[in-house]
Design goal:
By secondary structure, the chain is of the alpha/beta class. 60% of the residues lie in helices and 8% in strands. The protein folds into 2 domains: 2-148, no CATH class; 152-270, 2-Layer Sandwich (Transcription Regulator spoIIAA), CATH 3.30.750.24.
């Protein structure tokens, strides 16, 4: 339900620039829409910098909503509890609003890109002249989908060992999807006693991605399944070290880097 509320919010925000383009006296409305979308995308990037500088990126630690809701108003109790537990932490009502406003604008730009794609293909079907191919906005949509739902490869090493590899960076907007895919595979696998996560194809991991790995490790250990990390570059290790709940996993990171066994298991997936 909250996903529909988020979609409606993004659509309402997008209606403002779409209305401007529609009522503007211009023969090339597609070109006007492209320029408006480009300008708003640059604004979104700058607002993203403001979100980062105010340490608001984890004001709502889940994605795309805020504690499973469409607004910090609806998540006020969870935000207050998180702030009370860690007053100097990344969660507060102000930071939650900054993060969600950033997400609302991102959703609105997504709507504008969809509008570009639709109008470009309509123009092509009607054989109208366009200054750009409709494949450009279509490719952009496919790229966004690829980033939000990355491919997760699985491989079997020794008996009872499951190797996973995410062919993308682990970021706040795809971490939950990756976790869901991993658990779907684990539920269908038999007698798994160890999971090796190969991070060699994940050049970047943000704090939300690190927390997802921490959650996966915690849930696996609750199910009596060992968890190891391998192939993490130095930048990724720094993020993992900065994440409190994953401090206990540093031994697994360093062990996986020095012990040949996890790397040999991961090699099956890479090949």
């Amino acid at each position: 339900m909250f996903l529909l509320q988020l979609a409606a919010t993004g659509l309402c925000i997008a209606l403002l620039p779409l209305s401007y383009v529609w009522i503007k006296a211009s023969d090339d409305k597609f070109r006007k829409l492209v320029w408006v979308t480009t300008f708003l995308t640059l604004d979104l990037i700058m607002f993203g910098g403001f979100t980062r500088l105010t340490d608001s990126g984890l004001g709502c630690p889940d994605w795309p909503g805020c504690y499973g809701t469409a607004s910090p108003f609806l998540a006020h109790a969870q935000i207050a509890a998180a702030h009370a537990a860690m007053p100097s932490g990344p969660v507060s009502l102000m930071k939650a609003w900054i993060e969600m406003i950033h997400r609302y604008f991102a959703m609105a730009i997504g709507v504008l890109i969809i509008a570009q794609t639709a109008s470009a293909w309509v123009a092509r079907i009607k054989r109208k002249s366009l200054t750009v191919s409709p494949w450009w906005p279509t490719s952009l949509l496919l790229l966004i989908r690829r980033a939000a739902r990355p491919h997760v490869a699985f491989g079997a090493g020794r008996t009872g060992v499951l190797v996973i590899r995410v062919d993308a960076s682990l970021l706040y907007f795809n971490a939950e999807h990756v976790l869901e895919i991993v658990w779907t595979r684990l539920r269908s696998a038999a007698s798994v006693r160890q999971v090796v996560c190969d991070l060699s194809s994940s050049p970047h991991v943000d704090l939300a991605g690190a927390r997802m790995l921490s959650r996966l490790r915690r849930e696996l250990r609750a199910a009596a399944i060992d968890f190891r990390l391998t192939g993490a570059n130095e930048a990724v290790r720094d993020v993992i070290r900065a994440e409190g709940p994953l401090v206990e996993s540093l031994d697994e990171v360093d062990c996986a880097a020095g012990d040949g066994a996890p790397r040999q298991e991961a090699q099956h997936v890479r090949n």
